[in-house]
């Protein structure tokens, strides 16, 4: 995760990745924790491609749970930029499918795990900083 110039907030997310919505921020923390598990797996010298695949599945299962939560909020409050946001979630799904594909040909599962962890983390950081924070800013004006 990127280091915040202002330091990390008490909840473990750097300020630029906080949306201010507790449930969304909690989901994001969990997603970063799951990225860390992929990265930790890369340190195992005996790592098998099958295990990396399981880690990816573990990450994307939570991502789907989280996307469903965001979708529900977008629909409930008729979020105008829904299409762009959802296209981003779809792009993520395609990237995950591509990772699984790569793994079937990968000679070095540890290198693959490193690369995949970095890519997942980068996707999360860009998506949260850009799309999720925009959604949160909209919701702040609508919700309760
Ligand atoms: Fe999102
Ligand atoms: Fe999100």
Your description of this structure?
The protein has 4 helices and no strands. It is an all-alpha fold. The longest helix is centred in the C-terminal third of the chain and has 34 residues, at about 110-140.
Question: Topology of this protein?
Answer:
Blueprint: H1 22-41, H2 49-76, H3 82-105, H4 109-142
Helix pairs in contact: 1-2, 1-4, 2-3, 2-4, 3-4
This protein binds fe (ii) ion (2 copies).
The CATH topology is given as Four Helix Bundle (Hemerythrin (Met), subunit A)
Mean of pLDDT: 90
Ligand catalogue: fe (ii) ion
- The CATH class name reads Mainly Alpha
Which architecture would the CATH scheme give at its second level?
A: Up-down Bundle
- CA radius of gyration is 16 Å
In short:
Helices cover 74% and strands 0% of the residues. The protein has 144 residues and is mainly α. One fe (ii) ion is lined by residues 24, 28, 66, 70, 128, 132.
Task: Jot down its keywords.
144 residues, mainly alpha, Four Helix Bundle (Hemerythrin (Met), subunit A), 4 helices, disordered N terminus, binds fe (ii) ion
């Amino acid at each position: 995760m990127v280091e915040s110039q202002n330091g990390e907030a008490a909840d473990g997310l750097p300020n630029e990745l906080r949306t201010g919505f507790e449930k969304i921020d909690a989901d994001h923390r969990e997603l970063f924790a799951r990225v860390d598990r992929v990265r930790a797996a890369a340190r195992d010298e005996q790592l098998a491609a099958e295990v990396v695949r399981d880690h990816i599945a573990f990450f994307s299962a939570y991502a789907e749970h989280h996307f469903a939560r965001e979708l529900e909020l977008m629909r409930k409050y008729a979020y105008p930029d829904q299409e762009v946001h959802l296209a981003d979630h779809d792009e993520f799904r395609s990237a995950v499918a591509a990772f699984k594909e790569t793994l079937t040909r990968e000679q070095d599962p540890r290198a693959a795990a490193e690369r995949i962890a970095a890519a997942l983390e980068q996707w999360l950081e860009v998506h949260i900083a850009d799309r999720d924070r925009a959604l949160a800013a909209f919701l702040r004006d609508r919700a309760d």
